[in-house]
Design brief:
Oligomer: single chain
Number of domains: 2
Strand content: 5-15%
Number of strands: 4
Shape: globular
Mean pLDDT: 88
Low-confidence stretches: none
Distance between the termini: 41 Å
Helix content: 55-70%
Length: 194
C-alpha cells in the first residue's frame, strides 16, 4: 500500500464483528484498558487465552467510557457468563486470529525517519505520548482522545512531529532500505571488531 492508502485505512477502519459483537474501531482507550489488565493480546510474554479474547471483545465492542463504566458493574461477571453461554461453539484459534487481525489493522503507523539527534527513548510510553499530543496539540478532550482510533492516533502523532521538524514521514520502500542499511552497518561493525 502507499502512504495515503495506509493513512485512509487507519482513518476509516473496516467494520469487524467478532463473537456476535460489533467492535468499535480499535482506540487508544481500548489499548490502554487491555494493557492495564495485562491482556495477552497486547502484553509481551503472555500467550492469549480464551479469557483474553472474551475480555478484548468485551472492551472493544464499546467506547472507552462505556467500557470504563461496565468494568465497575457489580453484575458484570454474571452478564459475561450469560453472554458466553449464548455463544455457539467456535474455534478459539480462528477467533483469536480474527482478533489479532483487528488489532493489527487498528494499530498502523507511518514509517518515519528521525531528523533530529537525541530523539530516541525518552522514557515516556507511546500511549501517553500519543494522548498528550491528541489533547495538548490537537485539542481533543480526554474522552475524545481515548476513543480516537489507535492507528489514526499514531498517524496524527507522527504527522504532528513531522510538522515540528522532529522526524520525516517516509514511504515503506525507503524505510525498508534504511532498515536493511542499518542492519548491514551493524553486522559490519561487529565483523570489524572481531
Amino acid at each position: 500500500m502507499d502512504p495515503i492508502a495506509d493513512y485512509l485505512a487507519a482513518a476509516y477502519p473496516e467494520p469487524v464483528t467478532l463473537l456476535g459483537q460489533r467492535l468499535q474501531p480499535f482506540s487508544l482507550g481500548h489499548m490502554e484498558l487491555l494493557a492495564r489488565f495485562r491482556n495477552g493480546y497486547v502484553t509481551s510474554g503472555n500467550s492469549p487465552t480464551l479469557d483474553d479474547l472474551a475480555f478484548g471483545v468485551f472492551v472493544c465492542c464499546q467506547s472507552w467510557r462505556e467500557a470504563q463504566t461496565a468494568l465497575l458493574d457489580v453484575t458484570l461477571h454474571k452478564k459475561l457468563k450469560a453472554w458466553g453461554n449464548r455463544l455457539p461453539q467456535f474455534s478459539f484459534e480462528e477467533k483469536s486470529e480474527a482478533f489479532v487481525r483487528y488489532l493489527v489493522a487498528g494499530s498502523t503507523q507511518p514509517h518515519t525517519l528521525a531528523t533530529e539527534p537525541g530523539g530516541e527513548d525518552t522514557g515516556v510510553s507511546l500511549l501517553q505520548a500519543v494522548r498528550l499530543v491528541l489533547m495538548g496539540e490537537l485539542g481533543c478532550s480526554r474522552e475524545e482522545a481515548m476513543d480516537y482510533p489507535w492507528g489514526l492516533a499514531r498517524w496524527d502523532y507522527y504527522a504532528w512531529h513531522a510538522q515540528q521538524g522532529h522526524l520525516r514521514l517516509v514511504g515503506r520502500e525507503l524505510a525498508e532500505h534504511l532498515a536493511w542499511a542499518e542492519d548491514f552497518n551493524r553486522r559490519n561493525a561487529v565483523l570489524a571488531t572481531n
